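Milestone M4 deliverable, item 7.
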Amino acid sequence: MTWDLGAGLEDRGVVVTGATGGIGREVAKAFASAGAKLMLVDVDAAACEQLIGDLEGSGHSYRALDLSDVAAHDGLIEAARVSLGEVYALVHLAAVLRRQADVSDVTEGDWDLQVDTNLKATFFLCRAAAETMVRQGSGGRVITFTSQGWWTGGFGGSVVYNTTKGGIVTMTRGMARTYGRHNITFNSIAPAQVRTPMLLTDLDPKVLQAMTEATPLGRVAEPAEIAGLAVFLSSRHAGFITGATVNITGGFLMY
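Output delivered:
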């Protein structure tokens, strides 16, 4: 076995959603550096085109799509299979956060937007990818993204968002049990504070300061520090890891 981080990813087809976001962009760049062929998925077509120009390798493509449209998921995965030659891995980062400082201010619209995009879409997209992997017959990897809030309940007016992130952890475990017999692994990555636009939007600076002070490493993570774990969990090295939730929190969350 070759002990480089992305062993086994050379020329493999990988779908990355939320690809132009703060973490998603670094994840896409890391997979491309490992030799994978990518389909980028995001709502922003122009940003996808720009990102493709920044990636190593060739054979990359993109699809501009709002993943809350569950009916489009089968078509997306089939387009990825055709474009990439296979769907070996799905790395699903796409999510939305709508903060409300007081839980009494949460509206039904706030709930529906976040639950539909973050949880409902995650289930149906992961299922579509896994079923394609089953038909391909050579196994695969699915990486979901949760948050430290799956354990803590979250901070800064993010109760609904972290409700969805808790659901993702449970769903990932259930999918791991369901598809393990097909050599398809499901794992979830749970970052804490990462320097991205999503973290900073509408967040009280005092809350960010308190969370940073409560982090043993005493700082916020950079997006590139998250990407390596996604590559590892998709690599040959991680073939016996499934159903895991791996926290990247600088010590903010320990158990």
